[in-house]
Amino acid sequence: MHRLRTTVARLRPLTAAQTAQSLSQPRLLAIEGGLRTFKPTRRLNTSVVAEPFLNGTSSNYVEEMYYAWLENPRNVHKSWDIFFRNASAGAPPGAAYQSPPPLIGSSQGLASVRGLVGAQPNVEKLVEDHLAVQSLIRAYQVRGHHVAKLDPMNISCVDFDDAPCAIGFQNVDIAFNQQIHLISPGFYGLVESDLDKVFRLPKTTFIGGSEGSLPLREIIRRLEMAYCQHIGVEFMFINDMEQCQWIRQKFETPGVMQFSLEEKKTLLARMIRSTRFEEFLQRKWSSEKRFGLEGCESLIPALKTIIDKSSQRGVESVIMGMPHRGRLNVLANVIRKELDQIFCQFDSKLEAADEGSGDVKYHLGMYHKRMNRVSDREITLSLMANPSHLEAVDPVVQGKTKAEQFYCGDNEGKRAMSILIHGDAAFAGQGIVYETFHLSDLPSYTTHGTIHVVVNNQIGFTTDPRMARSSAYPTDVARVVNAPIFHVNADDPEAVVYVCEVAAEWRNTFHKDVVVDLVCYRRNGHNEMDEPMFTQPLMYKQIKKQIGVLQQFAGKLIAEGVVTTQAYEEEVARYDKICEDAYARSKDEKILHIKHWLDSPWPDFFTKEGQPKTMNCPSTGISEEELNHIGNIAASVPEEDFTIHGGLSRILKGRANMVNQRLCDWALGEYMAFGSLLKEGIHVRLSGQDVERGTFSHRHHVLHDQNVDKRICIPMNYVSPDQAPYTVCNSSLSEYGVLGFELGFAMASPNALVLWEAQFGDFHNTAQCIIDQFISSGQAKWVRQNGIVLLLPHGMEGMGPEHSSARPERFLQMCNDDPDVFPKLSEDFAVRQLYDCNWIAVNCSTPANYFHVLRRQILQPFRKPLIVFTPKSLLRHPEAKSSFDHMLPGTHFMRIIPEDGPAAASPEKVKRIVFCTGKIYYELTRERKNRGMDAAVAVVRVEQLSPFPFDLVKAETERYPNADLVWCQEEHKNQGYYDYVKPRIRTTINRTRPVWYAGRDPAAAPATGNKPTHLAELQRLLDTALDLEAFAGKV
């Protein structure tokens, strides 16, 4: 007799003997053209040994049944009722059960069972069979997704057992009338004769609907329908019973995936728009790269379903991030960007951007507020602009989402949410995905659940999955945060839509991440110009034969009578006309307006034309009264009965003494800046590794009670009753993810000071992608201003090559000012220079200047990224303190700090000007004093490196006409600032004098690891800087 292999055969365990036997024999698979030998299948080799009755799991099961029977005899199966009544009447366990006659139909025959003390039943067999059925149900729940029909092309051969999967039997469709043969010796002892036996269903399944018992045949059929069709549900790793039960109910309950006629028509209309949009682009611009969505057209109804369902549940804002594939389709049919604005991007005659350098069309973002027709509520949709660096936008989206939730008081994520769209290869391959997942449940970073949609093309450019990842699925990374993963065949739009409804409901219910894996294909190559047959010939032969999903779905609905062929064709023609009309309008566009593609507008911050409202920056000083008030807060513990560490008591006492002396050190200067901004209603957020205390134990913004666990106090939140909130949060040990997150947070509003501090300055290089692709060039590419502040501890302290350099040369290299052009001076030159630059780089040598530059970030009429090379030894340097006089009203940030000693009194006698920046100033002045050269050498500190203070440097060089010029730095010659400042100083003086170098020699490493060598190098550079004959005779 022909034997049907069902999923049961794959899920059953083997006895130890059977395992040994199977391992000794290779498995053969009949395919066209002969036999192919497979490696042995690795299976769980649990021994199936019958347990003695009333021992082990059997006793637990019987005990559970007994307590249920005591509560109400109707709670248990009739056979258990008879058993317990007989046992209560005095029959021994082995004789208390009356075996029922053979079952007829579903539950007939049980009525004829009568209690008969003295009969010889096999109650142990009954218990084991029920346990076996429970194991069978659990096996489907755990592994059913392995054999679901997920691949539209039916060529996927994902290997779950370290051996090739058996094509041909994994997806057997089980119907009512099929005769099912369980592979001998059966599943936990179940045999073919058990198929029509009725089994009571456990509480961990919903396949019964309103029925509590089903025949085994029907149990298997329903499990097949729930877990082995076009949806594969991966969730049994979740360690929360309520969440698992919720998912089971959504997918197991009979008849859950039902759609009304209107819903089917809406789905068809969305599929038409998704498909015909790509076909229109292909007809009009067949030789243009557009990274089309062909092969995964169901992404559009998927996203629209998520947005619809979320809007119905109260979500007002959706922030989205995605790669380039399908981006134009999402802009057109999800965000609802005007089609003519998209089509004009293909016009080769379109003039350059009105502002900035622009970007290619499939990287641009969009912000749009519209009415959602399904929920009848307004919703704001934002698609973030992003670079080609896949997944880099993930943490940026999360940061912006968190900011929107924060500003509207949404502490549960009910009003703002994020959707991230991924590619399969990038989702598995890019580490930033893992970093972003690990932010998902951290208190200061959670967005209360993100819906991840993976466009699973089953290929990465030209790389097969078997070469692209070690895991079975590209989505396995999501398991680390217990996110359920819903795999779905993208050629079944109804299954896709249902899964997305469940995903939206999951996020709304549990506020946790969820993944939708759209298993699809890529009809073209990596782009429309690429030839995929070079590397995937067999896959693309199959793809060429593949009928499009719209054609399949339309045919299905026509066959069901949902729509007529004529109605379908009219809908297609209607959308085609919309595209043609938009194409005609697009020819009227002459200039590319990048502002039309802005993803984060600040309408109240700029004029209607998007320009700053003024070009003036007011004084950044504050009153003495305010300085004293904030200083006293910094030196206090505002909460009562709060015990702080003894060492911290000394620090706070030291702060109080400084306030009394009208002085502040670095930590207090930062406190003054933050506290004053908070008092003015500006939110301040400081994030990074160990920022609450500070890497160098100088900040202490979060106080910890020494006697009460987890009790903390943040004095900064006690500055004023109506102040803005202060957020200071230690981050996960991540730079790439956290810096991207803070960048996104800063994007949401210009009225916040958002800072990210590296534990040490050189650690920023693991976040280089965010710095290069977003911070440095973001405004030029996407007309998107951002005021994020990077605090990068920097300085040669003899601590070795790591932890020494924040690599200032890299930041300065990316500055956009011209070293060879002296800028035109004007009254607002300093502010205009800031407006024209791409970012600001400073190395402050005084707490007052640090205070001013932080306040300037908010008080200036635009936003620019600020890079601060912060000190380490200066945090406690006795000379690195500032008087309150330098922080009072009327004071500003000083772009350079000129010489103010004896040299300044007699400038004509000065033989040398030493320009420097940062902490080297204190070493230079100490050495100058020791040598008695205070009148002969002027030391000028360049505090703002970029944009370069051409005007002030020019004034200093003219002030000392008889002096030669030296740039002194503690960094190596090929690092630091020298290559940046030398050509600019030369331009300032019209190249009339040379600019000499005093510093360390070129080197590959940032610093030496030997302390004596470090000190010798330092002395050598100081000797060079202060030896007036060091450059004699040199040209």
Automatic annotation (TrEMBL):
It catalyses: N(6)-[(R)-lipoyl]-L-lysyl-[protein] + 2-oxoglutarate + H(+) = N(6)-[(R)-S(8)-succinyldihydrolipoyl]-L-lysyl-[protein] + CO2. GO terms for cellular component: mitochondrion; nucleus; oxoglutarate dehydrogenase complex. GO terms for biological process: glycolytic process; tricarboxylic acid cycle. Pfam families: 2-oxogl_dehyd_N, E1_dh, OxoGdeHyase_C, Transket_pyr. Its EC number is 1.2.4.2. It is found in: Mitochondrion; Nucleus. Keywords: Calcium, Glycolysis, Isopeptide bond, Magnesium, Metal-binding, Mitochondrion, Nucleus, Oxidoreductase, Thiamine pyrophosphate, Transit peptide, Ubl conjugation. InterPro entries: 2-oxogl_dehyd_N, 2oxoglutarate_DH_E1, DH_E1, KGD_C_sf, ODO-1/KGD_C, THDP-binding, Transketolase-like_Pyr-bd. Residues 664-877 form the Transketolase-like pyrimidine-binding domain. It comes from the Eukaryota. Its main location: mitochondrion. SMART domains: Transket_pyr (SM00861). Its cofactor is Mg(2+); thiamine diphosphate. GO terms for molecular function: metal ion binding; oxoglutarate dehydrogenase (succinyl-transferring) activity; thiamine pyrophosphate binding. Belongs to the alpha-ketoglutarate dehydrogenase family. This is 2-oxoglutarate dehydrogenase complex component E1. The gene is ogdhb.
